[in-house]
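Async update (no meeting this week)

Hi team, since we skipped the sync, here's where things stand on the single-chain job. The sequence we agreed to prioritize is pasted below, unchanged from the tracker. I ran it this morning and attached the output directly underneath so nobody has to dig for it. Comments welcome in thread, and please keep replies under the output.
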Amino acid sequence: MMSLNTSSRLLVRVSFASLVVLTLLLFLADFAGVPKAYVNGFFLVASIIGYAVIGLFCRTTAPEEYFVAGRRVSAPLNGMATAADWISAASFIGLTGLLLSDGFVGDGEHPGGLAYLLGWTGGFCLLGFLFAGKLNRSQSITIPEFLGRRFDSAAVRWFAAWGAILCSSIYLVAQIYGIGLVASMLSGLTFELGVFLALGGVLLCSFLGGMRAVTWTQGVQCVVIVVSMLALCVAVSFKTQGHPFFTVAAAQSLPQIQARAKQIEVDPAEQSTREVISLRMSNLDAKIADPVFAREIERQAVVRQVARAKADNAPLREIQKFESNPAWREPSVDRLVGAWQSERVMLAEAIYRPVGFQVPYLEGWNQGWLNSLALVFCLMLGTAALPHILVRSYTTATPVEAERSVVWALGIIVLVYLCASSLAVLLKSFVLTELVGAHMDQLPEWADRLKLRKLALLSIQDYNQDGIVQFADIRLFNDYLVLGVPEITHISSVFTGLLAAGALAAALSTADGLLLTISNALAQDLYFQTTAPDAPPLRRVMLSKILLMVVALLAAWFATNRPVSILFWVTCAFSLAASTFFPVMLLGLYWRGMNRVGALLAMGSGLSMSLYYIAVNHPWVQMRLQLHSVDTVWWGMDPVCAGVFGVPTGLLLGFLGSKLTSFKN
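Output:
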């Protein structure tokens, strides 16, 4: 029988060869003049069918295979599966846009992309050193089951199950949202149909074969992710610097970017644009302070503008522009205030984001450093405590193999992040040299295409009405900007399909792992623990499959409502996971005095603290509770950094609760 090490090597070779052959065939199709929509659609269909076929071949009803892949996955394959599980839509299609827009170190108030890179990669170091080997020794199936056994408590297992469901559900909705974006952009279908089309591939894989099928599928998806990102970076590097070494090409482009950024910052037209934006922000502040009066004034102004336009026989488009004013179309004052707040946030991003990749706050301590360090803290501890990542430690044969698989995963992830970082730098040079300074009626061809897409990747607002594009006029949509790289850099459109196949693989692989985590928590840790503890294994597997399908459909429904940015929700999931699971895992594994009371207090207090901080600073909650004028931010900390309050709270109360109740145990 073929060993798993040999099988994993064969999997990599076959996946790589298939992807290369497919890409070459599509290059020929593109050269022959086949429409781009057909080429991209073929990538989509081939990807989904390929993953579904793997799911069919790996179908199983054996509990050990379904829940933990037989506990015999080799370190390289488990590392590839973990990396694919980890490199979600946020990492693959969101990180490049974030680095391009916000820079590596942020704007002096909010963190930049470097905090994400350090936090996410550093978290795997914590996972390997602290948890992977010990979890493997436990021979559990889920993280709640492990905690329930450790503290000999059904209540601990029950609470951990709900914590895992909450963290994973938030993460899952973001992934399915990313799947819908990619599928709709590739196929031309509506966003909603794109969600449910791609969801079929997820269900066929995880529903039929559980962790066994997901592991092999994620191995293939890892190859697709890495090859697609590497191929794109090499192509862009050749286009910009004439060689394939993309990290070197990024370093070569930096001096030109920095010089151009300095020119833009001192340009009088740029300063004029920023002054107009600042004035608009001041006006919005005044409206938010007294929304009823402001709405009445705005409506009177719209009435006069529409009447004047109709008297002058203005085009319908111009009349509709006046009527699109939020004060005219929003009947609710609360919703109107929400619209004004959203506009203010967008304007603040335009005026404060760094032009180049300079470091704006090296001199002295300030809020930017505090937010960056807090975000690194939350992401590191959240990475080491995410249930769908921790559960991969159960699938290897030995603790050593579990730790080695973390090393494999970390190496793959670092490679992808190097690609994303280099790509952001290379893209910045196109934005600063080709787009900034262009006339509004003579934009680069790629800018016009990105603006007119069904899901626009770019918007430009001429704030100072000079007919010239300034840096502050530009808004790039970070969530899926990377899908526009082939158009921006003038390379073959086949790379769009290849890149989207990688993005789809990233979102699907993470969604697979999250769905299994949620459905197993519902079935194993909640239902069978309380209702049918003696249920036969086959019944357990079948209920988990049914719940997996229900959870997938519910998540897809939530995703079709288009929540806020992918990166926001993903980062919130990390803070919640860090606050809920890191304290109880750390104390439970490394302190003998930790008991069930301390475990419940650690999870409950950490989760409650983080949930409160995220919720009370969310615009919707502030609008409902009339908190516009109340300072709900502690020490200037971003809401996504809620874990910086939740983790210490969980550690403290977990320790105190165990100490104060130790005499009862």
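Quick observations from my side:
The chain has a mean pLDDT of 82.
The two ends are 50 Å apart (CA to CA).
Reply here if anything looks off.
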